[in-house]
Structures are given as C-alpha cells and as structure tokens.
Amino acid sequence: MVNQRDVARRAGVSPRTVSNVLRDFHYVSEPVRARVRAAMDELGYRPNIAARQLRQGRTGLLTLVVPFDAPYFAELSDQVIKVAREHGLTVVIDKTDGDPDREREMVLRPDRTALFDGLIFSLDGLDERELTDLRPRLPMVLLGERADISGEFDRIVFDNLAAARAATEHLLGLGRRRIALIRSGVGVAAGPMDRHQGYLQALEAAGLPADEELIKNAPGTRADGYRAMLELMAADVPPDAVVCHNDPCALGAIRALLTHGYRVPEDVAVVGFDDITDGRYSVPSLTTIAQDREQIARRAVETIVARLDGDAGDPTTVWVDWELIARESTLGRSASPATPE
After folding, report:
1. Which of 115, 59, 62, 71 is closest to 93 using CA atoms?
2. Which UniProt keywords apply (predicted)?
3. What is the pLDDT at residue 59?
4. For domain 55-159+293-321, which architecture applies?
5. Residue 78: per-residue pLDDT
6. What top-level class would CATH report for the domain 160-291+324-335?
7. Which residues lie closer than 8 Å to 75 by C-beta, 6 or more apart?
8. DSSP class of residue 111?
C-alpha cells in the first residue's frame, strides 16, 4: 500500500505538505502542488477519504436545502456540487416547499443533523429568530437577506434593492414611463420586499408616481407570470414595460404579450431576475439581473469548510456580485449577439 510518506519521499516534501495538497490548502505553491500530484500519479497513490473523514469525526456530506424546484435553485445546486467536490465533499439536496415545519425538521431531527457535516440553507417560511432558538448543531450558512436579520449565522446575501432599482432605471433610460411590477410573495425573506422598494425608489427618483394597478403578485412560475401579465394588459392604460421578480415569471409574461399581439420590446419591454439559462435562449432573449452563482456557492462551501476546520470567529456576511445583462427583451434583436453567451 502506497501511503503519504511514500509520496512525500518521491516529491521531496514533508508528509504535512502532501496532506495540505490533498486538502487543497491555498498557501501551497503551484510548483510544489504539481510535484506532489506527479508523485501521486507515479506511485498510483489514492487517498483514503473515508478513513480520513472517520478520523476527523466527519461524514463528508453537506446538505443544500432549497425552498422550491425553480430553475435558479437547480443551477445554483450545480455550482454548489462542483465547489464541494473540490473539497472532497458530497452534496445532498433537499426541498422544503417553503413549509416552516419542514424547515424546522432540517435542523431539529438528530438523524438528519448527525448525517451531515454542514448545511447550506435558503429559508422561505421559518422566522430566523426561531431558527436562532433551535440552535442547530452543525455549521450552517444562510442564503439570502432576511426581514428579521439577527446576525447569528453566516450568510451569503445579494443587494436586491440596488439590483431592482437598476432594472427599473434601465427601462426608464429607454424612455419607458408606465412600468409595471410582477412581484413574488413577500414572507419573512427580505429579498422580495427589497426588490419592490428598489422599483419604487427608481420611479420616485424619475418623478413618476407608483400606480398600484401596475403591481401584481405572482408566486414565481411561468404560468404565474402569464396570468399576471394578462391582468396588466387589462388595465385602463396598459404598461409599456414590466420588471419581474424572477426569470420564469418574465418568460411567462413575454408569452402572454406575444400571444395577445404585443411586440416585445417595441410595445412592452421586459426585465427578469436571476439569469437562468432558459432566458438566454428564449425569443426574444431575456434582459435580466444576474447574480454570481459561482461566488455564492464557493463562499458558502468554503465558509462551512472553515468552520469544520476550527474557525470559531463571529458570523460573517458576504455580499455577492451582480450585474444587469441587457438582451433583446428590452433592446431589440439588433442589440444582442447572434448566439447566447
């Protein structure tokens, strides 16, 4: 059996350096890392990950808990799996449907908490104050802003207010003046409320009143966006643009417009949120707010790994990057590349 000491002798480094390469510690130089990996290949060494995890009292499993099976969470899950794999970790994905009882179960049941080394959690129905009282027994990172921020947990957040303001300002800059909003439900999560406020702030800065007739609620599917757009088209004065809280609603809204003889963007321009893959390939392609999902995944996984390695510092809040990607649904066909990014 080839062991780490054999690899260390072949590479001319210490066994500790071999261990650091296996754990992907960033401070190992690239030449040393390459030499160690070459020695592993020459000797046919394969690390016994299970044994190492057993010695450390770990299972090697993370769980990613999401509220819904929306495209955004599917694409985020893919990024989390990729980053976790870099650390020798396996990800188990679960869904709560936004049910507070189901969310409680994720952090209370001993058979669940004993199974995983860490939890990446996108809460939808559970009040964070209650979550604080539950005192989860494993490292946890929360995704998204909360209306009830307590500062008790590591979190990855995104500036929904600024992004929604930028989306609305983009439409205002194109000369649109009757801008509607299709918003998702407002619960304990702060994101939907912040997106609403960003929309209102942009209108106010432009000297335009908010018209409640142009604000519609939609839980988040394409069908929801379709129905909300039908209601907007029935207004006394229909909108000339619409901001949607997520891309599926925006795609549903575009379908409703095209089905009923409206041109997008000539008659009504549409902006979504989340930059899901479908929006890049839709006709017209969808202007959207893109969050850096790779950054979200990497910071979430690395935060848990740091906690497992003994980091007992104060909870951290990481703000992830975002950008507005303008495509055909606001700029027209001539403004977009011939093929999606």
Report:
1. 62
2. DNA-binding, Transcription, Transcription regulation
3. 81
4. 3-Layer(aba) Sandwich (3.40)
5. 96
6. alpha beta
7. 276, 277, 293
8. H
pLDDT of residue 19: 83
How far, rounded to the nearest angstrom, does the alpha carbon of residue 135 sit from its chain's CA centroid? 24
Q: State residue 198's pLDDT score.
A: 96
All residue ranges of the chain with pLDDT < 70 are 24-26, 48-57, 110-113, 128, 134-135, 146-150, 185-190, 335-341
What is residue 75's predicted lDDT score, i.e. its pLDDT? 95
Of residues 214, 234, 218, the one with CA closest to residue 226 = 218
Q: Among residues 203, 189, 234, which one has the least CA distance to residue 216?
A: 234
Long-range contacts of 291-295 (CB under 8 A, 24+ apart): 291/158, 291/320, 291/321, 291/322, 292/320, 292/321, 292/322, 293/75, 293/76, 293/79, 294/79, 294/83, 295/320, 295/321
Whether 160-291+324-335 and 55-159+293-321 are alike in CATH topology: the answer is yes
pTM of the model: 0.80
Written as six digits, the tokens of 97 are: 């449907």
- How far, in whole angstroms, is CA 278 from its chain's centroid? 16
Query: What pLDDT score does 45 carry?
Result: 85
- How far apart, in whole angstroms, are the C-alpha atoms of residue 100 and residue 88? 31
